């Protein structure tokens, strides 16, 4: 698995290098959603095609998933779950908070993940049972309590069509914000969750089903030693309606606050 993880990292880094070279220095001047989608597709489609070619050569028998909106994922076999430009809004806005992600699923569970943020010089990698690394070095969460925690949260891409997720997102922010120095949204979900594992963030939470975006970070954070559950403290699964990743010292405190949601 180590050789496959290294080869996956090389493929992801190369796609990221090309994308970074094409990112505009100024925000995209798009007057309509259609114009923004067209501009993004012109960049993302070639990158996704290259990523699929490179990873397909590494695991010819594995299937391919590239739908970040998917709520149901295959339960059998091997599948690549990838996003060539995770963080489209940031990419088009000339911001650095975007990533290239690649996750190999086996029978519905992630067995390796790479989240590479070219503009931030950060590459998070993990294989199931092998720990997590940041830029090749082992990483782990930092010991924190909520009073010293930098927290992060986000929403699924289809949150507008999920009124309960919208309600819970607002209630959770109201519950957590008075107890932490800051709550941020720092770009792609997978990258934010990975940063819990590396200690750059203390905790992350989200409401609403979002397996495609949560699976890469869930493996990276768990392999680093973070606690990964749903908001009730149960083991997180791709079908869960909530997600929490936190440093061990802050996890129980966060769950206590989320009981009010």
TrEMBL record:
UniProt binding sites for Mg(2+): 83, 86
Single GO molecular function: metal ion binding
Protein name: Putative inositol monophosphatase
Pfam family of the protein (one): Inositol_P
InterPro entries, per the entry: Inositol_monophosphatase-like
E.C. no: 3.1.3.25
Keywords: Hydrolase, Magnesium, Metal-binding
Species: Kitasatospora setae (strain ATCC 33774 / DSM 43861 / JCM 3304 / KCC A-0304 / NBRC 14216 / KM-6054) (Streptomyces setae)
């Amino acid at each position: 698995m180590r050789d496959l993880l290294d080869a996956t990292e090389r493929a992801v880094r190369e796609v990221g290098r090309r994308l970074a070279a094409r990112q505009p220095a100024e925000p995209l001047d798009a007057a309509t959603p259609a114009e923004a989608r067209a501009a993004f597709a012109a960049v993302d489609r070639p990158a996704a095609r290259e990523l699929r070619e490179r990873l397909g050569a590494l695991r010819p028998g594995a299937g391919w998933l590239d739908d970040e909106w998917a709520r149901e994922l295959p339960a059998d076999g091997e599948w690549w779950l990838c996003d060539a430009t995770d963080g489209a809004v940031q990419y088009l806005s000339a911001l650095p908070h975007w990533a290239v992600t690649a996750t190999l699923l086996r029978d519905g569970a992630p067995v390796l993940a790479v989240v590479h943020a070219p503009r931030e010089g950060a590459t998070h990698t993990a294989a199931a049972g092998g720990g997590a690394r940041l830029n090749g070095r082992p990483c782990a969460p930092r010991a924190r309590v909520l009073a010293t925690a930098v927290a992060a949260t986000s929403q699924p891409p289809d949150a507008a069509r999920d009124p309960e997720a919208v309600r819970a997102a607002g209630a959770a922010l109201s519950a957590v914000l008075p107890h932490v120095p800051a709550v941020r949204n720092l770009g792609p979900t997978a990258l934010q969750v990975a940063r819990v594992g590396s200690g750059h963030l203390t905790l992350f939470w989200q409401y609403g089903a979002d397996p495609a975006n949560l699976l890469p970070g869930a493996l990276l954070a768990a392999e680093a030693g973070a606690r990964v559950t749903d908001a009730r403290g149960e083991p997180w699964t791709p079908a869960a309606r909530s997600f929490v990743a936190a440093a061990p010292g802050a996890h129980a405190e966060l769950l206590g606050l989320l009981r009010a949601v």
